Amino acid sequence: MLDAVLDVVGAAALLLGLLIATIGLYGMLRRERVFEQLHAAGTVTGPAVVLILVGSVASGSADIITSAALVILFVFITSPLSAHAIAQAAWRREQDADDPRAP
Amino acid sequence: MPELLETIATAWVTLLLVGGGVLLLRAQDALHRILALDVLVAIVIALLTIVSYSRDVSYYIDAALVLALLSFGATLVAARHVIRGGRPRS
After folding, report:
1. B30 to chain A, minimum CA–CA distance in Å?
2. What's the predicted TM-score (pTM) here?
3. Are residues B37 and B20 in contact, defined by beta-carbon separation less than 8 angstroms?
4. A99 secondary structure, DSSP code
5. What is the ipTM of this complex?
6. Is B21 at the interface with chain A, CB within 8 A?
7. Domain-by-domain residue ranges, chain B?
8. Range of the domain at A71
9. Which fold has domain B3-84?
10. For a tag site, which of A41, A100, B5, B59 has the least CB within 10 Å?
């Protein structure tokens, strides 16, 4: 019983994650500016990867679930940080381009 | 997990990888490339995870963890390089 439920939940999470990744990638291909692309990239590097890793509950193997939980924790920390670093770099560059005294 | 679903998921992620490659090729400057590489690494993490499910081995997810760590460091350093352009701190 529980196995069947976990199977369905895992498969649904996997497919939903793939769908979100596809939508995010399409958004990145559509947009030109860095900030707009960053908005779409946030969905691929954050929720999509986490959902695909949540699909590990269907595998029923303790090794895989433990490793996946570790990666989920790590993605939760690093995904916003790297997005912030890229946004800050883009913003600083625009400021420098507007500033006539910039080197 | 049913085998058909694993096959579909692997094929789907491979197509996403091709899309990420197109994104990388279309990038106009360094920041776009950094962003595209970030997304490509996320897709590769997804691919390794699905391979791990289909082979029922946990090592592939460990490789994905290391890849995520390396990508995080590379993104931070590359973004910092775009800001400062290799100039020393003033």
Report:
1. 10
2. 0.89
3. no
4. -
5. 0.88
6. no
7. 3-84
8. 2-98
9. Helix Hairpins (1.10.287)
10. A100
